[in-house]
Backbone:
């Protein structure tokens, strides 16, 4: 399977999902390299086109070529590449590819089975299609920020460009579904991903269904979840621990533990039992009972002893704690990747484990134009002289 | 597809599959009901638990078929294997190890169908010292580091109200499953897939983890700021809890931004003229931006910036999205779904953007065991007498007679 990636930030994770599962993803950058190479932070904090940690992470297992598709010769090469591709992933403003004569209708003539996957802020159609977007803007419009963070704080965006990551993940899913459909009738299609819609879908638990049912608009409320009582962070001797109770049996186990440790017998009252909704009016009282328990424990005690009792306690981990978690180590989660410049770096590993077709990082993110010769020369048959000429004129 | 599932992370995979046209059969049990079936309507708590009325039951399970089986009965396990053999894939998110104990582990299922695809998803995955630990989406937000990476510097951790890891795990699980279906189409081989929600969630902040893994330090909490754009934030507008997010990239946009807020002199101001100076003086800059936004309505601010080609968007809540967002309306993002008990309900869309083969949500609000007759009769081809025998053995549980009156539910 071959994926051509002509993408800014919002599409890179999509290409990574395909590439790490073994698809041949050819990343097409502007001559000289894409602007995504300039996204900080950098390896050893030194700005360098091969050193953006964001770029390195998001472009694993891809091959890289450079091409100026705004010029006719670049378009001719691009059209030949499209002829060999299953998926073309792009993040241009709506209408840009059409303006070059490379819109879906034109590409379909060349390759009827092509899946053209477009990721934009607002989608290809509608009154706001030409609007500009960004991760924080899609997170705002999509409903994520309104319900993230502390009650008394302004809305806040999640770290790590999650609107872009999720738009990419939806794009990967849709592309696979379009390919599945193609296997039935041979025809591709245009996949139109809107970052705003992706986020509105991601946040559905705070969405239309709930509001139209109970009339309450979900808002920020710190660490507790509105529908789960109890839930949130609780103080321990050496930090905070996260707890969530949804099942009646889990509540009973927690109440029992509180009674054992603190001597509190009121917590065992049957009126607190059953689904979360039974405890909704007692949220603050129960939080106080739970804090009496957790404040006598370390985070580690609350976590492991709590879990031994089938209660969903979890630590609130820093990046370092995640990197050093013995559970992840036992599963060999982190992997190492060899870089020509940076040497061996540790990377987060597989998001899923396939028994027959395992996820793997086949190569580090490409250097600028690293595979120009391999792709244009080796596959499209451009001569060494032709390549040099294309390079000199800034086509590649 | 057959689904043994609970909560959101498992069921949401089947929800997408059903939306795209797959026949998805959800196996449930009355003895161990899914949390989403324990819904007490807040508008009529006297009705007690209403297994069909949760809006999230619609969000996660619309369009599926429902059977009720008591999985402690050997006959029920036999029926599950027959169901699995009739399907393309099985998805489960029971606690790690439960399926194997029930006799429905991958090797059991493969003996029923040699090219079986099983996707098993759980909080911690199927191995490692914590594999049996209990977790929900928000637990994973805390565990996987995204809560301490996000938010304002003075906050210890920042969390969502939308159980983000459940959602992202379902979407990753779906991609993993579609990859396995593709492989089977090409080779005829099935496989087992294990997904750890913890690991999938670390993956979506993997680029931030790299800062620790490669450079050895915890990434700074940026709140709404960016390391490569300024202004970049969420700015107070007129009204209660009204905000507009704005992101200004590059000097061209900065110049246009200064035009919109009527401060052309800022373009050359030594404290703001370059990106690095704007980043350095972000606090002052944010204060000045907010002076402008706080005297304007949120949608007005958004329109002014977008008119100048600058990324801006209102911090919308669900009511805003339904009532005030012309883009979502024009693209018919929200979907009306037929509900067994409520007539019609409205749900957030699935947003896959498949222009030639758009999906559609089928029936919502079905009861536990609603489709026993169809699934066992038509799919497995069992006779009425055989089904009756399974009911008498306690393997098949009969459909609940949910008779509670449904109040006014517009």
Residues:
């Amino acid at each position: 399977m071959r994926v051509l990636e002509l993408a800014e930030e919002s599409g890179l994770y999509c290409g990574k999902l395909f590439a790490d599962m073994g698809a041949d993803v050819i990343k097409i950058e502007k001559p000289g390299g894409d602007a995504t190479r300039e996204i900080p932070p950098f390896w050893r904090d030194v700005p360098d086109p091969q050193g953006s940690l964001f770029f390195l992470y998001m472009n694993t297992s891809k091959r890289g070529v450079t091409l100026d598709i705004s010029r006719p010769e670049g378009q001719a090469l691009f059209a030949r590449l499209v002829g060999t591709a299953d998926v073309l992933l792009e993040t241009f403003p709506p209408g840009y590819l059409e303006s070059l004569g490379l819109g879906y209708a034109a590409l379909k003539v060349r390759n009827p089975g092509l899946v053209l996957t477009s990721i934009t802020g607002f989608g290809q159609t509608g009154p706001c299609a030409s609007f500009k977007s960004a991760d924080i803007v899609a997170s705002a419009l999509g409903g994520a920020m309104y319900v993230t963070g502390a009650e008394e704080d302004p809305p806040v965006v999640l770290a790590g460009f999650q609107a872009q990551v999720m738009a990419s993940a939806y794009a990967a899913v849709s592309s696979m579904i379009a390919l599945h459909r193609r296997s039935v009738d041979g025809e591709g299609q245009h996949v139109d991903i809107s970052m705003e819609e992706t986020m509105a879908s991601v946040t559905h638990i705070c969405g239309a269904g709930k509001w139209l049912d109970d009339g309450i608009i979900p808002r920020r409320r710190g660490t507790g979840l509105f529908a789960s009582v109890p839930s949130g962070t609780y103080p321990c001797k050496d930090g905070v621990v996260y707890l969530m109770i949804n099942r009646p049996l889990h509540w009973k186990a927690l109440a029992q533990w509180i009674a054992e440790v603190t001597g509190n017998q009121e917590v065992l009252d049957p009126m607190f039992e059953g689904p979360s909704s039974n405890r909704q009016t007692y949220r603050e009282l129960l939080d106080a009972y739970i804090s009496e328990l957790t404040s006598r424990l370390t985070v580690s005690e609350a976590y492991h002893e709590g879990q031994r009792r089938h209660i969903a306690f979890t630590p609130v981990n820093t990046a370092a704690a995640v990197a050093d978690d013995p559970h992840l180590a036992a599963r060999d989660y982190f992997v190492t990747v060899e870089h020509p410049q940076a040497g061996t770096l540790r990377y987060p590993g597989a998001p899923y484990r396939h028994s027959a077709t395992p996820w793997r990082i086949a190569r580090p993110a490409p250097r600028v134009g690293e595979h120009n010769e391999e792709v244009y020369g080796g596959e499209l048959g451009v001569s060494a002289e032709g390549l040099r000429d294309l390079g000199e004129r800034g086509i590649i | 597809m057959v689904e043994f599932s609970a909560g959101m992370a498992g069921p949401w995979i089947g929800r997408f599959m059903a939306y795209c046209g797959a026949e998805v059969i959800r196996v449930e049990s009355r003895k161990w009901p899914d949390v989403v079936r324990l819904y007490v309507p807040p508008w009529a708590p006297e009705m007690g638990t209403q297994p069909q009325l949760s809006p999230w039951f619609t969000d996660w399970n619309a369009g599926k078929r429902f059977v009720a089986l008591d999985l402690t009965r050997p006959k029920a396990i036999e029926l599950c294997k027959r169901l699995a053999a009739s399907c393309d894939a099985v998805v489960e998110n029971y606690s790690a190890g439960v399926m194997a104990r029930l006799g429905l582990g991958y090797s059991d299922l493969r003996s029923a169908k040699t090219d079986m695809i099983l996707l098993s998803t759980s909080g911690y995955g199927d191995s490692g010292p914590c594999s049996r630990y209990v977790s929900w989406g928000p637990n994973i937000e805390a565990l996987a580091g995204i809560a301490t990476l996000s938010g304002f510097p003075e906050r210890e951790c920042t969390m969502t109200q939308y159980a983000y890891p459940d959602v992202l795990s379902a979407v990753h699980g779906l991609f993993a499953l579609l990859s396995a279906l593709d492989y089977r189409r090409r080779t005829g081989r099935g496989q087992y897939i294990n997904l750890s929600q913890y690991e999938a969630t670390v993956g979506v902040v993997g680029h931030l983890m790299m800062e620790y893994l490669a450079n050895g330090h915890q990434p700074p909490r940026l709140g709404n700021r960016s390391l490569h754009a300024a202004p970049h934030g969420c700015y107070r507008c007129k009204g209660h809890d009204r905000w507009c997010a704005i992101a200004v990239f590059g000097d061209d946009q900065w110049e246009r931004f200064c035009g919109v807020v009527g401060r052309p002199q800022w373009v050359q101001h030594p404290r703001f003229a370059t990106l690095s100076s704007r980043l350095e003086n972000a606090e002052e800059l944010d204060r000045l931006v907010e002076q402008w936004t706080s005297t304007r309505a949120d949608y007005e601010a958004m329109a002014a910036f977008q008119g100048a080609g600058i990324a801006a968007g209102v911090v919308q809540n669900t009511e805003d999205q339904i009532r005030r967002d012309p883009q979502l309306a024009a693209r018919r993002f929200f979907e009306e779904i037929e509900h067994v008990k409520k007539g019609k309900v409205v749900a957030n869309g699935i947003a896959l953007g498949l222009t030639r083969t758009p999906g559609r949500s089928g029936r919502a609000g079905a009861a536990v065991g609603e489709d026993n007759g169809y699934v066992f009769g038509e799919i497995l081809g069992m006779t009425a007498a055989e089904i009756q025998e399974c009911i008498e053995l306690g393997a098949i549980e009969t459909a609940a007679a949910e008779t509670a009156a449904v109040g006014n539910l517009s």
Notes: Confidence is low (pLDDT under 50) at residues 401-410 of chain B. The longest strand of chain B covers residues 117-122. Residues 164-187 of chain B form the longest helix (24 residues). The domain at 232-327 of chain B is CATH 3.30.1540.10 (formyl-coa transferase, domain 3).
